[in-house]
Amino acid sequence: MGNFTKYLGATLGWSFGGPIGGIIGFVLGSFIDGFSSDDLRQEETYGRTRTTRDPRMATQPGDFEISLLILAAVVIKADGKVDKRELSYVRRHFNQMYGATRANHAFKLFNGIIKNNNISTRQVCLQIRQNMTHASRLQLIHFLFGIAKADDFVSELEVNMIHKIAGYLSISNYDFESIKAMFYSGVNNAYKILEIEKSASDAEVKKAYRKLVKKHHPDKLQHLGKEHLKGAEEKFRQIQKAYEDIQKERGL
């Protein structure tokens, strides 16, 4: 248990308090009796002495990681069942980002979160919104759609839940539809990704592309660590592909 709690100490930042901290407390309580918030604070102190934290950044890699796990659990349970393929997607994604050891700790925490039936999605999202940059919140939504698509079918219940989360995170409907369209094929979806209508002029298409490049550029997530840049780069490539598909369709 010691290594697991030290992992938590090393990853928790602003997420230690508030509703997210309460969820972590629930998970720890299910693992070990008598584990108090003082114990967790000690582990957090241990973790902070071992990690470099930039005081200019409200969000640290661990904060994003915990937020991602909690919202992933909410989406996975949105259709009333826990699909093994979706669980595998989360485990595989964390393995790719963090390596086997850290991913195993994260998945242990994730399994505990899945069992918590009292998560207030709104309160969790409000805490995330107060502490996380807009670019980081966009990346969370992109990851959640990836989970929903892991079983090759995005149910209406999952889409509705991600839309609700996006609203709580102050993600506009344009941004939501843009990210959603990245998980569907077709030229019409290319226009949705660029947040424009098919009737847009060539100049408007180019302007929309430049705006999206600026909004979703991977450099905006540098503070989360290199492990999170792969997902940002994939989203960036989808925006570029959408622009190229429209150019090809129009013969530009």
UniProtKB/TrEMBL annotation:
Q: Which InterPro entries match?
A: DjlA_DnaK_co-chaperone (IPR050817), DjlA_N (IPR007791), DnaJ_domain (IPR001623), J_dom_sf (IPR036869), TerB-like (IPR029024)
Boundaries of every J domain copy? 189-251
State the taxonomy lineage. Answer: Bacteria, Pseudomonadati, Bacteroidota, Flavobacteriia, Flavobacteriales
Q: What is this protein called?
A: Molecular chaperone DjlA
Alphabetized, the UniProt keywords read: Membrane, Transmembrane, Transmembrane helix
Would the keyword Protease be found if you checked this record's keyword annotation? no
Membrane-spanning intervals of the chain = 12-32
Q: Which Pfam families match?
A: DnaJ, TerB
Domain of life (superkingdom): Bacteria
